[in-house]
Design brief:
CATH superfamily: RelE-like
Number of strands: 7
Strand order of the largest sheet: 3-7-6-5-4
CATH architecture: 2-Layer Sandwich
CATH topology: YaeB-like fold
Number of helices: 5
Largest sheet: 5 strands, mixed
CATH class: Alpha Beta
Number of domains: 1
Length: 119
């Protein structure tokens, strides 16, 4: 973990915290794709302790006011936010999932496309 100096010259470490849902998703990824893929995703998430802003800001990318950042790792999007001394992993989506709709209610697909593909 990265040790960071606060203004009061106290040393603290960033801790990675997973939401219950993100743990379930990691178990599902392990079941579908194997432990190696989970290890790569978790390794990238652990890297956030050293560089918590290495992911892209959702606010800057989409113009939606919110505290989330995201990483794209092994065909998955990892959404996280920063706390005082922690990185909170909130959601993990496969790149085929419509995560913009699930998180923010934004539809990028037209009804015509949905009708054509039968989804």
């Amino acid at each position: 973990m990265l040790k960071i100096w606060r203004k009061s010259w106290e040393l603290f470490e960033l801790k990675i915290v997973y939401s219950p849902h993100s743990r379930i998703v990691l178990k599902d990824i392990k079941f579908r794709y194997g432990q190696e893929k989970v290890n790569k995703i978790v390794s990238s998430i652990r890297g956030l302790a050293d560089n918590p802003k290495k992911g892209a800001s959702v606010e800057r990318l989409l113009g939606i006011s919110n505290p989330y950042y995201f990483l794209h790792v092994e065909r998955h999007y990892v959404f996280y936010k920063l706390g005082d001394s922690r990185v909170y992993v909130n959601e993990i989506f496969n790149e085929r999932e419509d995560f913009l709709y699930k998180l923010f209610g934004i539809k990028l697909r037209t009804q015509e496309s949905i009708d054509y593909w039968g989804e």
